[in-house]
Amino acid sequence: MKAAVVILNWNGIKFLEKYLPILVGHTPPATGTVIVADNGSTDGSVAMLKEKFPSVELIEFDRNYGFTGGYNRALAQIEAEYYVLINSDIRVSSGWLDAIIDFMENNPNADICMPKVLSEARYEELLSLPDSSGKLQTFEYAGACGGFIDCYGFPFCRGRILSSVEEDHGQYDTPMEIFWATGACMVVKSNVWRELGGLDESFFAHMEEIDLCWRAKLLGHEVWVVPQSTVYHVGGGTLPNNSPRKLYLNYRNNLLMLYKNLPYREDDTAALIKRNFFIFKRMCIDGLSGVAYLLQGKWQFFKAVLNAHSDYRKMKGAAKISPRLISYTNASSKNLAGAYNKSIILKFFTGSKRFSQLKYRG
């Protein structure tokens, strides 16, 4: 098959009932085949799929292997030229898949791509208004119009900086090479997926797509956003944005990602010290955020930061340093496209709430 469009489902029956018919309707059989991989759901998802969507291929797992383990197991069973990882809470639009596949075939170095991701909540809000003229769609937090990373390893997006999410008025409608593509809707060439060994299962969930894209870039592959393809994302479908568990996974996995992918040479003691000092600085910044949570009385969030750092220290010994073909040590290196050489937090608190204000040149 050309493209395998794979939803990894875990107790998402309501999302499947609402969005799966739209996905099937807007995915031409000549381009893509829709598959649902169920991660041990207990909410009746499997029975519903067999009854209402008998034409949709179903892969069943015995338990929840997380985002990483679930996709690795599902895609290992599927032969296709392209793998499409897509959340169950995504509303696709007409032509969404063809636009990305066409771009990738016309740009052979674009090995991982994502669409423009807008807010499903805003989409439905505008649909409910008797007159929505003059009102704009907004980007969605998880991915927006392409992922970037700052000098301390903090991710942000074209269209979303920290908590500030922009309206979409076409300002980012040009395809662009980025640092990472959102796991909510990502298209990966299957040969690249296999070369990378899929997602890192130690992450379980969160930051795994950034790690995947970083590893791809270390091997010379490019990551792009294709805004001519548009999808709408509910977001927070598995874990809400204010979840201590989600905070824990993000902090822990970000440190693991840095440990694996920062410039490193086994025979270079100075480089090793530099990498470790970089991670130490990042942990100090995390610590300050933990103190802020404590001062706000958010004990569970403070505890999540502490546990993330503790578990990172336990896990880093088993973390596999990412293989790399390109040794990159400066921001001008080609495979650093999407890396921002300043602090996004500092920029945010000094007034840069929109991506265009960063004057990012790539």
Q: What shape does the CA trace take?
A: globular
Tell me about the largest β-sheet. 9 strands, mixed
Structural class: alpha/beta
Spatial gap, N to C terminus: 35 Å
- The amount of helix comes to 25-40%
Secondary structure tally, helices: 11
CATH superfamily grouping of the largest domain: Spore Coat Polysaccharide Biosynthesis Protein SpsA, Chain A
- Number of beta-strand segments: 13
Question: How many separate domains make up the residues?
Answer: 2
Helix-strand string: EHEHEHEEHEHEEEEEEHHEHHHH
Q: How is this structure best described in words?
A:
By secondary structure, this protein is an alpha/beta fold. The protein folds into two domains: 231 residues, Spore Coat Polysaccharide Biosynthesis Protein SpsA, Chain A, CATH 3.90.550.10; 81 residues, no CATH class. Helix content is 38%, strand content 18%. It contains eleven helices and 13 strands. Strands 1, 2, 3, 4, 5, 6, 11, 12 and 13 form a nine-stranded mixed beta sheet that branches. Strands 7-8 form a two-stranded antiparallel ribbon. The chain has a two-stranded antiparallel sheet with strand order 9-10. Helix 2 links the parallel strand 2 and strand 3. Helix 8 runs antiparallel to helix 9. The two termini are 35 Å apart.
